[in-house]
Predict the structure.
Amino acid sequence: MAPHRLNPEQTPAITEYGGVTFRSQLEARWAAYFDRHGIAWEYEPKRFDGWTPDFRLVLGDVESCVEVKPVSEFPMDVAQRMLNADCGGDVLILGQGPRHAWRYDGDGWSAVALTM
């Protein structure tokens, strides 16, 4: 599968939110979503082999590494890079909105439903 490429209108724009400088408006929108839903987050928490997650989330006792991409379909190339990095926790890919989210649960990737 070919890597996902951004269309010119999807070029990331550096955006400030909550005292943090994000590499894209989409990342800032997800941070605002986490805040509205009381989800603890950390931006670009650490680097793994070949991958720096956009976020680390804490949901109860579960930590998740999160990648944000401006996609509406599952990005296999991104998913494989995330799995190869072996961050040791749950892994999420968040796309353009709450209906574009996927989670790796150890048995494979599946779509997850988020609410706004």
Helices lie at 25-36, 76-85. The chain has two helices and eight strands.
